[in-house]
Design brief:
This protein is of the alpha/beta class and about 300 residues long. Helices cover about 45% and strands about 20% of the residues. The protein folds into two domains: about 90 residues, Orthogonal Bundle (Arc Repressor Mutant, subunit A), CATH 1.10.10.10; about 210 residues, D-Maltodextrin-Binding Protein, domain 2, CATH 3.40.190. It is built from 13 helices and eleven strands.
Amino acid sequence: MSNVSRKLLPSTSALAAFESVARLGSFSNAADELSLTQGAISRQISGLEDQLGILLFDRSSRGVALTEAGRAYARAIGGALSQIRAASLQAMTKRHGDTLNLAMLPTFGTRWLLPRIPRFVSAHPEITLNFATRIGMFDFEQDGLDVAIHIGQPNWPGAECTFLMEEMVAPVCSPVFLAGHVIEQPADLLPLPLLHMASRPGAWTHFFESMAVAGTPAPGMRFEQFSSVAQACSAGLGVALMPLFLIESELAAGDLVQALPQQVRSPSSYYVVAPITRVEFRPVKLFRSWLIEEVGRWRDEPYYA
């Protein structure tokens, strides 16, 4: 390797020290995180600065702060270090079979997918599953992931989207809220406090359009998380549009009830998504086939709506 090539490849220990200081803003905190002395961290950073020929940190009596060049370098190497960590994790967790790194939606994952995962593990004990939580699109390669469960449209660039299921939503609320309000038809919902999810800003508009109801929905509380909407509904704060299959426990316990019997098809559907480079990867193929079978099994369950 030439001297120039060596200069362009700093040691991983120096990069780890730099990334830790940049993230934590302190040599001493980085030393604690990496189980090194503060002096060792300082030497790693100084050596890296000498190798690159730039100043990465401004040092003062008040502490350290990234320089403009340091901030740019931290952004540039962050993705590479994440890939190295993901590759190392995969190598460490891989045993006598394959590893599948799966991104799942938070609520769909915990309430629908994970209770069924033991059947996949039983059928394919040679595959090690690693789970991550993701909402929306992301970079599979940068995040070190092989496959994802996605809700939306089948328009993920550079990936193959396989349809799993549609999503039917219905207005739900607490029994106390329902007892205190007259809700006999969809139009009766218009003046009521309607709860919204930030990720689905047009859900109520779509519902009323589907029900041929004219009018503007009343403004209401907005939430980031599905679980927060369910809790707000249970507390009697309003009516929310929710997929019934994801709130089975709340419905069974009587914490939530349907405000109306009508359901509408959400504009979004569920897909299993794999990057083109991983479509033929054996664990991806097996997981996708199993997941499609599980959806079919679920459709045959008596409470499927």
